Amino acid sequence: MATIKYLIKGKKELSTIYIRLRDGRNTDLTISTGYTINPKYWSEAKGTVKQTSDNLEKVNISNDLEKLQRKIIDSLNSDKGSGTEINKDWLELVIEKYKNPMLENKTSLLIEFIGLYQSNLKSKINKKTGKKISAGTIRNFNTTISRLKEFEKYKKRNIHLHEIDLTFHSEYTKYASNSLKLSINSIGKDIKQIKTVCLDAKDKGYSINQQVESRKFNAESEPTLFVTLNESEIERIKKFRGADYLENTRDWLIIGCWTGCRVGDLMQLSNNNILITPKGQKFIRYTQSKTGKQVDIPIHSDVQEILNRLGNFPRPISDQRFNEWIKDVCKSDEVKLNELVHGTRQNPDTHLKEVGTFEKWQLIRSHICRRSFATNHYNKLSNKIIMAVTGHSTEKMLLNYIGETENEHLDDFFNVWEADKEQAKKVIELKQQENV
């Protein structure tokens, strides 16, 4: 049977009243109630406010402690039956709900907050683009929710909004890395979304832990390992022959590499996206679903060949099928992208990302289209022109995307210094000739 006793520590004029909850062999919890009292008005033997005092404030504290005790017992009986873990976090929440009854009528579960935030995104407008939030951005929250559910199973309890602090950050990061085997970038996305939801809750009047706003509560990241298709490899892909669905996939892969489209935008292209300039030149115009930016891209000869052959763009296929079938195309006898390269892939059995050395076709996925476009045109076209197609807002973002660093200035220095050395050498040679 559960027992509750109040006690104070120290002899200060205002000493904190603590509560001790014991229930069986495994539950023995002692935490602060947040109430304070002068020790001279406290009965250590009974663990209550002395009844000799007629001070109204002390009478109120005594009443609060009695009501809190009943609240804890009722909550204990209710939550134990539902399998909730009875620990310090649970006890703190019960006390908080007693002091702030409005919390009883509001959800305090982190997952429910994320669900509400996700639902509200469907009607929100992106301030930068003036467009609705993309479906992909909204779907990303489902992944975070599913991972948090696994974390709650591991913790054997629900996670509440007020618990999101640096301790949670550390525990979740460790769990996601060791148990879920997630990459640093994947964990960082979860942390970023959790922080966003907490700050949104704060704006709506909910109480959050101040540590969420700390710089230490950050989303860590690491450089992304990726592969691209060069023009020679695209030529090999053009020669692929096989089943109708694979040839359809081949055509989409080629179009993707010459348009730089994300797969969601790629599969939406049709003849309606083809326009003609005043000079009679054909180009593709579409609006990026993620950024809301309008993109105009000339039709490459490889793309035009496909359009001439089919009379339209290929048949749309799902993202999942595209990612699956482009691997079949790239490992075929005609293409043979089987050289060993270092990169990341999704393990086909565990569906987790893994880093290692694989045959190149194993690392091919839909994002290779956009990266190949940017990489193949880098140093051929200005960064500004490439950014107009990829949708990057800054050159730094573009360079990070294609794995380049901002070191063009090094070449400029070397060229100038080499020229200076050559000029100085010529001057010395001329002086030597004059002295002869």
Quick synopsis:
The protein is of the alpha+beta class. The protein is 48% helix and 13% strand. It folds into four domains: 3-100, no CATH class; 110-213, DNA polymerase, domain 1 (Orthogonal Bundle); 231-402, hpI Integrase, Chain A (Orthogonal Bundle); 406-436.
How would you describe this structure to a colleague?
The structure is a single chain. The chain has helices at 56-81, 88-99, 110-121, 135-155, 166-178, 184-203, 231-238, 244-259, 263-266, 301-310, 319-330, 368-377, 383-390, 395-402, 408-435, and strands at residues 3-8, 15-23, 27-37, 42-43, 48-49, 274-276, 282-287, 294-298, 340-346, 353-359. It starts with a strand and ends with a helix. The chain has 15 helices and ten strands. The protein is an alpha+beta fold. The relative contact order is 0.06. Helix 1 (56-81) packs across helix 2 (88-99) and helix 8 (244-259) packs across helix 11 (319-330). Mean pLDDT is 84; it is low at 405-411. It has a three-stranded antiparallel beta sheet with strand order 1-2-3, covered by helices on one side. It folds into four domains: 3-100, no CATH class; 110-213, DNA polymerase, domain 1 (Orthogonal Bundle), CATH 1.10.150; 231-402, hpI Integrase, Chain A (Orthogonal Bundle), CATH 1.10.443.10; 406-436.
